[in-house]
């Protein structure tokens, strides 16, 4: 794929030009809480207030104002190496979720054991989703449909750093997406987003494997390779008669096999900032899944998405920040299809963003951007938006 070549070439060029070593990886908020050892009780949080306005020369649209999310982090240090971290979120004022709740036991810098409700390490934004950590008011669409941020499930596994090789690794077993709970959860229109179980009375027939390796051995550069492999969950396996071939065949047809791989990079040099991401997800058994659900979900057999972004901090070196940026994004939840299902170009879209973020102090950002979105469906018109927002993180 051309974009994979471009991202790989950019990382190779950066590596060859800037060979100075760095000793520390980029840490998300939960990881920063684990590193802080001075107090037993740890508190943090972030929030996001948005304004979204669609604009058109022919049609009038109302703007939308939303307290999108307000989040509190709570952590406790039981001992030097044993910690608990939680993340509690209010969405749209009236929805309450627990986004993280896990125990981390650090044997040494090379190896930690972790279990509970955790973020699936895929891409960039799912682990770094605080509004001060990404450009633009809204998260990239790829991180909504294909990597359904915030994607968290219950699981356990290991992680750590190999400082001599500048590598950070994570390896977990999670419950899978809920493919069928009486209704189909995966579709070409919604991608994986509606299939998250979120730790709510989670069902699991067999665990899924998630892994990520980050390389941070070049000053200012972080390269991530991630994978996710397993099956979706189905309520039809609960109370399944093991002696009934018909029941087993029906249950099997409600399951989708997922093999997802991703590559991402983040690079900074002075005021210059760049990042990119490529995600590919292969979906096995999608033809049987569509037929089982009377072809309602119209699920394809592969999803793809990528974006490239660049920005520059005009106030680099000061306590404040002023970052204009541009981002181009392309995604397709019908990258391929199986059986008699025809590709739907309404699920294939391009998006362009241009905006600016002002950071008057560490942990506060004011954002505004222009967004253009157009699907590849014949006759479809492009959509234009102006987005603005306030983000905090502490």
What is the compact description of this entry?
Helices cover 11% and strands 51% of the residues. It is mainly beta.
Q: What are the main properties of this structure?
A:
11% helix; single chain; Porin; 16-stranded antiparallel β-barrel; disordered N terminus; mainly beta; two-stranded parallel ribbon; globular
Question: What does this protein structure show overall?
Answer:
The protein is mostly beta strands and 394 residues long. It has one domain (2-393): Porin, CATH 2.40.160.10. It contains five helices and 18 strands. It has helices at 2-17, 29-35, 142-145, 245-253, 286-292; strands at residues 41-55, 64-79, 82-91, 95-108, 111-119, 152-162, 167-174, 178-180, 208-218, 221-231, 233-234, 257-269, 272-284, 302-312, 321-336, 348-361, 364-375, 383-393. The strands form two sheets. Strands 1-2-3-4-5-6-7-9-10-12-13-14-15-16-17-18 form a 16-stranded antiparallel beta barrel. A two-stranded parallel ribbon has the order 8-11. Strand 9 and strand 10 (221-231) form a beta hairpin. The radius of gyration is 21 Å and the shape is globular. 39% of the residues are buried. The model is unreliable at 3-21 (pLDDT under 50).
């Amino acid at each position: 794929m051309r974009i994979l070549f471009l991202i790989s070439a950019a990382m190779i060029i950066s590596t060859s030009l800037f060979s100075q070593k760095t000793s520390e990886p980029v840490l998300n908020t939960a990881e920063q809480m684990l590193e802080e050892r001075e107090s037993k009780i740890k508190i943090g949080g972030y929030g996001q207030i948005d304004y979204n306005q669609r604009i058109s020369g022919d049609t009038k649209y109302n703007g939308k104002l939303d307290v999108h999310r307000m989040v509190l982090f709570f952590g406790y240090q039981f001992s030097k190496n044993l910690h608990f971290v939680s993340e509690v979120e209010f969405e749209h004022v009236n929805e309450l979720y627990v986004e993280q709740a896990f125990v981390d036991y650090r044997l040494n810098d090379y190896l930690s054991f972790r279990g509970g409700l955790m973020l699936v390490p895929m891409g960039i934004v799912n682990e770094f989703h605080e509004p001060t950590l990404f450009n633009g008011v809204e998260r990239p669409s790829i991180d909504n449909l294909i990597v359904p941020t915030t994607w968290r499930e219950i699981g356990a596994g290991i992680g750590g750093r190999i400082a001599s090789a500048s590598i950070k690794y994570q390896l977990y077993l999670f419950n899978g997406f809920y493919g069928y709970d009486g209704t189909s959860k995966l579709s070409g229109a919604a991608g994986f987003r509606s299939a998250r179980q979120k730790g709510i009375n989670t069902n699991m027939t067999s665990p899924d494997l998630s892994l990520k390796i980050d390389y941070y051995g070049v000053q200012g550069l972080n390269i991530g390779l991630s994978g996710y492999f397993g099956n979706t969950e189905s309520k039809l396996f609960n109370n399944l008669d093991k002696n009934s071939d018909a029941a087993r065949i029906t249950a099997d047809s409600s399951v989708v096999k997922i093999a997802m791989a991703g590559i991402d990079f983040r690079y900074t040099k002075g005021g210059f900032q760049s990042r990119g991401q490529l995600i590919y997800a292969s979906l096995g058994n999608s033809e049987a899944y569509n037929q089982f659900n009377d072809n309602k979900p119209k699920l394809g057999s592969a999803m793809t998405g990528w974006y490239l972004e660049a920005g520059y901090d005009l106030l680099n070196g000061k306590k404040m920040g002023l970052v204009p940026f541009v981002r181009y994004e392309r995604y397709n939840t019908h990258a391929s299809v199986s059986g008699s299902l025809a590709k739907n170009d309404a699920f294939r879209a391009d998006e362009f963003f241009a905006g600016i973020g002002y950071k008057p102090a560490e942990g506060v950002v004011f954002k505004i951007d222009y967004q253009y979105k157009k699907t590849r469906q014949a006759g479809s018109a492009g959509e234009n938006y102006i987005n603005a927002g306030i983000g905090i993180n502490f």
